[in-house]
Amino acid sequence: MTRVLLRILAAVLLLVASAAIGWRVLAPAEQAASAITPYPPEPTPTFGVTGRLNQAPLIVDRRLRVYAAKHQVRADGPVTARTMYTARWSFRRWPAQVSAVVASGATVVTRWSDGRLIALDARTGKVSWRADGPDAPGYAGHRTGAATVWTPPGLRLAGGAVVVTQGQDLSGYALSTGERLWSITVPAGCADGFTTEGGAYVCATGVYDAVTGRPVSGWPAGPYEPVGCVSFVCPAFRDGSGHGWIADGAVPRRVAALDAPGSTFAAGVVVATTDAGISVASVDGTRLWERPGMARVLGGTPATVLLLTPANTLEGLDARTGVLRYTYPMAYGTDDTHWKPGLYQVFDGYLAMERLSPEAPEDPESPIYYLTLDTVLVTVLPY
């Protein structure tokens, strides 16, 4: 009898211990490790490909690289470091997943699958504010996190506001404090839109002021196609009739040169891809220059149009004259350029790009989708 009781007692103690361990492992938790060193200065410009990383960086304040993993956001630096360094700060939540990350100045806004919005001070990694929002999709960044930080779903910035979308729910929060400014229900089809330099949130079925949530008048009929987007904000668009507009103010400006399908707006000019090559015009339609041969338009810096050739060579051409300002292969060290471009982002003086296998399948989870382990290149762009 005593042996039976001892066995029962041992089983109970084992069950209690297992439950305690399970709770500690699986219970919701949050861990933050703040920076312990001073905020770094902007790095000395070193033009060309400076690093090769295994995750996609969000360049923040020209000083830090911020990365998104499934349950964690972390930062390292300097931006020009040749590889990933020990985290300067990190912020981890469990079991919530990182859904999207955006940044403005030294503020990093993170969205999580449980609906939480958490802003981090990029200088320290400490929480600046928290807010409740609608449930969000789970982590969809695959191995590099590029889709989470370069094309963040349902999270946009405009006019000092953070705009969050989920289904037909659309809400705006103050970037500085996290205060909810407005919340509305929008028609079906407004699931995920884009923001403009003029401070509007634009989706297929409507246009809304990002600070007030009120519908904006004076716009042509949609649906709208974003054009020339850089760091979550789009300077131009095409309307439902295919007509091009620049959206740098409250009321968009008509630009007929943007009517050509596939044309984009970069460095203050209209860039179109034709069968003969690249054709560039001013916003009034005046033809400025042409470049023969095929190339991919990546975007631009304030005075330079960025092109990627089929041989994966980067070209920077003067936006007004077409004069070649610089060119170099998109390769680090002894790497070759035989790869397929993946997702990319042009930041404030930086370009980061995924390299995919030449025969990459459609599935990003495939073991042969990315070129190498360190598949993301970072390059500093001359101004």
UniProtKB/TrEMBL annotation:
Residues 89-188 form the Pyrrolo-quinoline quinone repeat domain. It comes from the Bacteria. InterPro entries: PQQ_b-propeller_rpt, PQQ_rpt_dom, Quinoprotein_ADH-like_sf, WD40/YVTN_repeat-like_dom_sf. This is PQQ-binding-like beta-propeller repeat protein. Gene3D superfamilies: YVTN repeat-like/Quinoprotein amine dehydrogenase. Pfam families: PQQ_2 (PF13360). Transmembrane segments: none annotated.
